[in-house]
Design goal:
This protein has 340 residues and is α/β, with parallel strands linked by helices. The protein folds into 2 domains: 160 residues, Rossmann fold; 167 residues, Lactate dehydrogenase/glycoside hydrolase, family 4, C-terminal (L-2-Hydroxyisocaproate Dehydrogenase, Chain A, domain 2, Alpha-Beta Complex), CATH 3.90.110.10. Helices cover 45% and strands 17% of the residues. It is built from 11 helices and 11 strands. It has a 6-stranded parallel beta sheet, sandwiched between helices. Strands 9-10-11 form a 3-stranded antiparallel beta sheet. Strands 7-8 form a two-stranded antiparallel ribbon. Helix 3 links the parallel strand 2 and strand 3. The chain is globular. Pfam families: Ldh_1_C (PF02866), Ldh_1_N (PF00056). It catalyses: (S)-malate + NAD(+) = oxaloacetate + NADH + H(+).
Length: 340
């Protein structure tokens, strides 16, 4: 907990220093699913950011209480509450960025794919609202299964004639956060100095950590590669089982979601050199229309896709293994939007 607080405090201090020398305006961020297990801690973290002037919270229940609670925190960010569909317009109007953690959580024995039917309908409804009321906003999808909900969102925007592939992101940051943490612990490194790109998708075997590209450079035995890769891929299940049916990875996902939102807002307000991995429309792997890789973020969203870089033999095999599964996940999302 102390390390978590220290890292967030350092991030906020750096952001505040940068803002003090800039002339940019703060921004409106809308959280759809703000009263849920991820939405509440995510909103708490966003409320502390000097980058955000207006935090608009939407959920079908309990939103007024969450908003009232957060509004008592002595930061300058204004918090507003919006409940049920009639108020979705007011939540989204003039939003610069929308983050969507809405959906049902994983339970023991469930895969992300098991969540598809319920969460796909929720995401389609909310994406339609975004396409209609804030078509130029950055859209950050947390709702699982991301491998399918991002294509659903993209198809909704296409159907409404407002699709911009540079502005729709599947937030896979938790995979990077986990990879950084697990490698730092296993190699006795300062976690603040560790950076591991994680590519592919955001479920099971589709998650591919590129340990050969670790910074600082680290050597791994074949056994370590297998163990770390498997743990990163199955880390969500590790949390679900540890909570014994009482929840999923909510706190770590909120932290990762906040990190991605802050990076995107800083880039949108003109800060240069900001890179994050995300699941986006891509041609990096020809067979897959969406793929997560390191991205350079800019004022208009994706400024550059850095691609895969040089892969080890172990990672090449991992890439081959993930393609069929990720292709199936993506196609499932596209089909849902067409036939639902």
């Amino acid at each position: 907990m102390c390390t978590f607080i220290r890292r967030m405090r350092i991030s906020h201090l750096n952001t505040a220093r940068w803002l003090s020398t800039s002339r940019t305006n703060n921004m409106k961020v809308s959280v759809l699913g703000a009263a849920g297990g991820i939405g509440q801690p995510l909103s708490l973290l966003l409320k502390q950011s000097p980058l955000i002037s207006h935090l608009a919270l939407y959920d079908i229940v309990n939103t007024p209480g969450v908003a009232a609670d957060l509004s008592h925190i002595n930061t300058s960010t204004i918090v507003t509450s919006h409940t049920e569909s009639p108020e979705l317009y007011h939540c989204l109007k003039d939003a610069d960025l929308v983050v969507i953690p809405a959906g049902v959580p994983r339970k023991p024995g469930m895969t992300r794919d098991d969540l598809f039917t319920t969460n796909a309908s929720i995401v389609k409804h909310l994406a339609t609202g975004c396409a209609e009321h804030c078509p130029n906003a950055f859209i950050c999808i947390i709702a699982n299964p991301v491998n399918s909900t991002v294509p659903i969102t993209a198809e909704v925007f296409k159907d409404n004639g407002v699709y911009n592939p540079k502005k729709i992101f599947g937030v896979t940051t938790l995979d990077i956060v986990r990879a950084n943490t697990f490698v730092a612990v296993s190699k006795d490194l300062d976690v603040n100095q560790v950076s591991i790109p994680v590519v592919g998708g955001h479920a099971g075997v589709t998650i591919l950590p590129l340990l050969s590209q670790a910074k600082p450079t680290v050597n791994f035995s074949n056994e370590e590669l297998t163990t770390l890769t498997t743990r990163i891929q199955n880390a969500g299940t590790e949390v679900v089982e540890a909570k014994a049916g009482q929840g999923s990875a909510t706190l770590s996902m909120a932290y990762a979601g906040a990190r991605f939102v802050f990076s995107l807002l800083r880039a949108a307000q003109g800060e240069r050199g900001i890179s994050e991995c995300a699941f986006v429309e891509s041609t990096v792997v020809p067979e897959l229309p969406y793929f997560s890789t390191p991205l350079l973020l800019g004022k208009e969203g994706i400024a550059q896709n850095f691609g895969l870089g040089k892969l080890s033999d172990f990672e090449k095999k991992g890439l081959e293994a993930l393609i069929p599964e990720l292709s199936k996940n993506i196609e499932k999302g596209i089909r849902f939007n067409k036939f639902e």
